[in-house]
Specification:
The chain is mostly helical. The protein has 4 helices and no strands. The chain has a single domain, classed as Up-down Bundle (Growth Hormone, Chain: A), CATH 1.20.1250. Helix 1 runs antiparallel to helix 2 and helix 1 packs parallel to helix 3. The radius of gyration is 15 Å and the shape is globular.
Length: 119
């Protein structure tokens, strides 16, 4: 999620968009813990989906995106690991909590590192 120069900003924007897409995908199954506050989860997912919808045009940008492929591959691997862990642990509450903390950590990192280019 970091860029070394202004030419990599589009790659970062696309990586952020793909991250939001991947987060939305993680919550598409029905295994969400009953212990979670349903309203807070719904609010969170609405924000994620709204951000995805509002920023989908970023994927049409073509300038300086040569670094996006490597970013996209890293994101796919990262989210595959998270998804696999939750599945392997039988969608347990503990597994979902670990995933939740990973997502929060990722979103906080994006916000702190990219507040100047946020979509």
């Amino acid at each position: 999620f970091q860029s070394n120069n202004t030419q990599q900003v589009t790659g970062v924007e696309k990586a952020i968009y793909q991250t939001l897409q991947n987060i939305g995908t993680l919550f598409e199954n029905d295994g969400v813990p009953d212990q979670w506050n349903a309203q807070k989860l719904d609010d969170f997912l609405n924000i994620i989906y709204r951000q995805i919808e509002d920023s989908k045009c970023v994927m049409n940008k073509s300038e300086a995106t040569q670094d996006f492929t490597s970013r996209d591959d890293a994101l796919k691997a990262y989210f595959d690991i998270i998804s696999t862990d939750v599945k392997e642990k039988g969608f347990s509450y503990c597994a979902w909590e670990i995933m939740r903390k990973e997502i929060l950590h990722t979103l906080k990192f994006i916000l702190t590192q990219n507040s100047d280019i946020m979509l």
